[in-house]
Specification:
Strand order of the largest sheet: 1-2-3-5-4
CATH topology of the largest domain: DNA polymerase, domain 1
CATH class of the largest domain: Mainly Alpha
Distance between the termini: 56 Å
Order of helices and strands: EEEHEEHHHHHHHH
Number of strands: 5
Number of domains: 3
Strand content: 15-25%
Radius of gyration: 19 Å
Structural class: alpha+beta
Length: 184
């Protein structure tokens, strides 16, 4: 079983790489999240999930091991195969997907090709508890810091989470400012 590959990228398309390692070229499917950080001729290291079926043997590679772990959790869900899992991880980062699952935000999840409302509901149902158990962050660092600042000001956690749920901002200050408007 292949779990990790280091090598030079000799061919690249948006979701497909050929990585040369010791004279062998490995065909590796990848998400847009990982692929966007890789250039032709880069020396890279990928965490691999190998899926062997009766008629195929495919490699799925990720720059981040959390993305690989989440991919493996996604393909365990009935109705979500490797292609659909890659589509999800191509459209949403692991952090964004975890946040959507934790907040039960179906509208974000169904933006990925091949994901309908029923599949999104099943995904939320099966992964909501696992997201926390596996230690995936459901908030960006800025959101976390903004939440901590609002809690320090004396607001209750439930109110803080609701206020930050749909708040936009590029930094902690903006997030706190916009959340305070909602909390007032």
């Amino acid at each position: 079983m292949i779990a990790y590959i280091e090598g030079k990228v000799i061919k690249k398309s948006p979701t497909y790489l050929i990585v040369k390692n010791n004279g062998i070229g490995y065909a590796i499917n990848t998400s847009l999240q990982s692929s966007s950080k890789i250039a032709l001729n880069d020396e890279i290291a990928l965490f691999i999930t190998q899926i062997i079926k009766e008629d195929s043997n495919k490699l799925y590679g990720f720059l981040d091991d959390n993305e690989r772990i989440f991919f493996e959790e996604l393909i365990k869900i009935n109705g979500i195969g490797p292609s659909t899992a890659l589509a999800l991880l191509s459209n949403l980062s692991v952090e964004e997907l975890c946040r959507a699952i934790s907040n039960e935000n179906i509208s974000i999840i169904i933006k990925a090709p091949g994901i309908g409302a029923k599949t999104a509901q099943r995904l939320i149902l099966e992964l909501k508890d696992k997201v926390l158990k596996l230690g995936f962050s459901t908030q960006s660092n800025a959101l976390y810091e903004a939440a901590q600042a609002l809690l320090a000001l004396g607001f209750k956690n439930d109110n803080v989470q609701k206020a930050l749920k749909d708040v936009n901002g590029d930094n902690v200050g903006e997030l706190v400012k916009n959340a305070l408007k909602k909390l007032s």
